[in-house]
Amino acid sequence: MRKILGKLCLGIVLLALVLTPVELCGQSFICGDVDANSMVNIADVVYVITYIFGGGPSPDPLLAGDVDCDGTVNIADVVFLINYIFAGGPEPCAVPTGILVDYAGCKTFTRGSAAGSTPPDQDCIEYQYDGARTLLLKHINAGFNCCPVIAADITIEGNLITIHESESFDSTGPCWCLCLFDLDLEISNLSPGEYTISVIEVCTNPEDEILEFTVNLVSSPSGMYCVFRDHYPWGFY
């Protein structure tokens, strides 16, 4: 847990945020603590600005200044630090995490339904990236039992995002049918870049195409990717 300290110096309040050190290649440092004084505050913002634009000394170590974890130290890191210190933004080098926010179903379909709706033979991921480390995903037409408790385990390893879906049941057990659901998922602290999103589903067959695609969230921050399914529970009106 970070601790907020107030320090009055020459009439300027410096907000100091104490973070857990990062251990990398035998070198311990606090991400965002570019002046290596064991605190993250406005002085670190000034330090990075001076380094980028004024030829000042580099962060110590350089990785401490890469607070958005995109591989470079630039003005984006300055904005990130300001947002963190003064606006409650994400911690420097925060680990990306994902959760299942909500789900809805069983879905019913009728022929001639409203234009723009996703037909039942399409298994899709709709995505929206806000450019500031939050990726919203909607798994449309995900196949499950008709009366499950749905869960999703989301792992982010490098540029691979894996969504492992699962289902469980109450004491009455499963229903004798399958149907389609929509799942809302959210990934936080995700740096801009190119990612492969792969979904491990419950009701697919071994020969089915995997719902997996690669997207550059900088050039294509929103969109949809679908695969065709021609077996139950998909494809039925």
Short descriptors:
elongated; mainly beta; 2 helices; 237 residues; disordered N terminus
Structural features, described:
The chain is mainly β and 237 residues long. Helix content is 11%, strand content 41%. It is built from 2 helices and 13 strands. The strands form 4 sheets. The protein has a 5-stranded antiparallel sheet with strand order 5-10-7-6-13, with no helix packed on it. It has a 4-stranded mixed sheet with strand order 8-9-11-12, with no helix packed on it. α1 runs antiparallel to α2 (75-87). The longest helix is centred in the middle third of the chain and has 13 residues, at 75-87. Residues 1-27 have low confidence and may be disordered.
Query: Roughly how many Å apart are the termini?
Result: 51 Å
- Largest pleated sheet: 5 strands, antiparallel
Beta-strand content bin: 35-45%
Low-confidence runs (pLDDT<50, min 5 residues)?
1-27
Global morphology: elongated
- Give the ordered list of helices and strands: EEEEHHEEEEEEEEE
Secondary-structure-derived class: mainly beta
